[in-house]
Amino acid sequence: MTVWIVLGAIAAALVLLSLVRIGGTVEYSRSGTLVHLRFGPLRIRVYPPKPKKKSGEKRPKAEKRRKKGRKPEKEQPEPKPGGKLSALKAVLPLVADAAGQLRRKVRVDRLLLDVTAAAPDPAAAALAFGGVNAAIGMIWPLLENNFNIGDRRVRTRVDFNLTEPEAYLYGSFSLRLGQAVSLALRLGIKFLKLWSGRNQEQTKKEAV
């Protein structure tokens, strides 16, 4: 009888824990993808994982003091150079598809999207700018249809020094812990398939 009570208590605790709402941020820039989760005052970097501290290595005292006195980050990040637009276009459909069963239950409180067109000269700028806006036309409906988006900002521009278009994406979101686990499992499988396919294509190109 005691065993069933313990199991029931554990099951109830897991159900209640899955209903806890958590927050987080996702940022895509030239530096790569950065994902953080927030549990109240606790902030955890999910991706990329932090490098493991070497045995016996201690954090410098100055760094400890900086971390202790660090102020909470602002909701709007500092502007950063964007990453490749092609990579973002490949990943976002996977994210939207993985979130399909949680349709609009993931709340995006703030979404920033900056897309920069690459043009070698003013004559090509109009064509490049049109291509960038077409890309946004593909990306934005995926986000609108699968997430409950609050504050948003979309900007486009042209850079004559770039060789290919770039994009910067920042989003602050919140969802239930159980939804986060489900979404992470779906995304993990889809990302593995995506990168496996890309590696195979790269191997074929190198063989040729």
Mean pLDDT across all amino acids: 76
Return the domain count: 1
Task: Give helix % range.
Answer: 40-55%
SS-based class: alpha+beta
Task: Give the helices and strands as they follow along the chain.
Answer: HEEEHEHEHEEH
Number of distinct helices: 5
Q: Could you describe the largest sheet, including whether it forms a barrel?
A: 7 strands, mixed
Query: Approximately what portion of the residues adopt beta-strand conformation?
Result: 25-35%
| Residue runs with pLDDT of under 50 for 5 or more positions | 62-66, 69-73
Annotation, overall tally of beta strands: 7
Radius of gyration: 21 Å
Shape: elongated
N-to-C CA distance: 67 Å
InterPro entries: DUF2953 (IPR021338)
Protein name: DUF2953 domain-containing protein
Organism: Pseudoflavonifractor intestinihominis
Comma- or semicolon-separated keywords:
208 residues; alpha+beta; 7-stranded mixed sheet; 5 helices; 7 strands
What does this protein structure show overall?
This is DUF2953 domain-containing protein. Residues 46-84 are annotated as: Disordered. Residues 50-71 have a biased composition (Basic residues). Helices cover 46% and strands 29% of the residues. The radius of gyration is 21 Å and the shape is elongated. Strands 1, 2, 3, 4, 5, 6 and 7 form a seven-stranded mixed beta sheet that branches. Helix 3 runs parallel beside helix 4 (122-146) and helix 3 crosses helix 5 (177-207). The chain has one domain. The protein is α+β, with helices and mostly antiparallel strands and 208 residues long.
